[in-house]
Amino acid sequence: MSLARLGQSLVRRLHRPLHLPPPPPPDHYATVSRPFAPIHANTCVRGFASLTYNYNGGGVISGKFGGPSHVHAAQVLELVVLLNHARPMSSGAGAAPKPPSLSEGVSFGGYKVALKADMPSPGFVFEPYRVPEPIPLWKRLFTPSGWSRTKEDAILQFMNAFTVSRLRKKIGYNKKQFQEQAFNIYKEVNKLIARGDIPSLQKALTDDMHFTVKNEIRKRQSKWKSVHWELVEPSVSIRTLRARMISLDKNDLNKAYVQLTLEFITKQKFEAYNSKREVVSGDKSKEVLVKDIWVFERSLFHPGAYWRVCARITL
C-alpha cells in the first residue's frame, strides 16, 4: 500500500463531519446497567458503579445532546504538517517530564482538585473503545479486507500517538504517573458512590456523568440502605486503551479536549445491607475480580483544568 493512498484515506476519514445521536428519553440517565447480584470469588465482573450507555451506529455513546455539533474531530493530517515546522520534542536525556497536574487546589482522594472550575465537557465520547476483532495474519497480508483492516489500525495508532504528543507538549504527560493519578480518582469515585456522597462526586465527574451517577445512587438507595465497598490494592493491571483529541478550532491546537480511555482490572469486596443491617447481597469476605473501562477527560485550553471522569464504557 503506497503512502499516497494511505494519506488520502487519512484525509477522507478525518474530514468526515461528526454528528451526534438524537436525545434519549428523559429517564435515560436513571437507568442502571444491571441490578446488584450476589458475586463469587475469582469471577471477572464489571464494577458496582457501572452505568448504562447506549451505542449508536456511529460508535458514539448516547447522552443529553442531539443534532449536529459545533465540535469537530482533530484534523490530524493538517496538524502533522504544523508539527513538522515546530521544534521537535526530545525524548532523550534532560529534565524529567512534569507529571500531569490536577492544579493547585483542595485535597480530594490523595490528589489536588483545582479551585477554579473546568470548562464544560463536550458531553460525548469521541470514538469509544471497542475490542478489536481478531484477524489471522494470512488474511491481513493477502486479502483486501485484511489490507483495509491494517490501514484502519494504522490510523487508530497514529491518532493515539498524536494525542499523547500533544499532552506531553502541553502538560508534560507521563504515562506511569497519569495511570497512578487515574487509579486514585477511580478509587475515590467508587468510595464516594458507595457512601452516596453526591456533592463530593461533582469534583471528579463531568456534569453529565455526575447527573447519571446521582440518579444511579438514588435508585440504589431505594433498594438498599447501605453498601460496603472495598478495593484490594494494588491493582491487577491498568492499561491505556485509547487517546483522542476533540478540537474546537482546527486552526488552534490549544482549543481542544483530550480523552484517555483506561482499563482497570482490580480485586474488590462488596456487600449490601437493608434497613436492619442485614446482608442482602454480596459477601465482603470474598475478593471479586472486576474489569472497568473508564474515560478520563480534560481541556488543554483552560489553565485550571484537571482530569475528570466523563464516561464508563460497557463492552
Short description:
The protein has 315 residues and is of the alpha+beta class. The protein has 7 helices and 11 strands.
> Over all CA atoms, what is the radius of gyration?
21 Å
> Which oligomeric form is depicted?
single chain
Helix content: 25-40%
Write down the CATH topology of the domain at 174-314.
Nuclear Transport Factor 2, Chain: A
Uncertain runs with pLDDT below 50, 5 residues or more? 17-21, 23-41, 51-117
Order of helices and strands: HEEEEHEEHHHHHEEEEE
Number of strands: 11
Strand content: 15-25%
> Averaging pLDDT over every residue, what do you get?
74
Keywords: Mitochondrion, Ribonucleoprotein, Ribosomal protein, Transit peptide
Pfam families: Tim44 (PF04280)
Subcellular location: Mitochondrion
Protein name: Large ribosomal subunit protein mL45
Explain what you see.
Keywords: Mitochondrion, Ribonucleoprotein, Ribosomal protein, Transit peptide. It is found in: Mitochondrion. Belongs to the mitochondrion-specific ribosomal protein mL45 family. Residues 160-314 form the Tim44-like domain. By secondary structure, the protein is of the alpha+beta class. The protein has a domain at 174-314: Nuclear Transport Factor 2, Chain: A (Roll). It is 30% helix and 24% strand. The strands form three sheets. Strands 2, 4, 7, 8, 9, 10 and 11 form a seven-stranded mixed β-sheet that branches. Strands 1-3 form a two-stranded antiparallel sheet. The protein is globular.
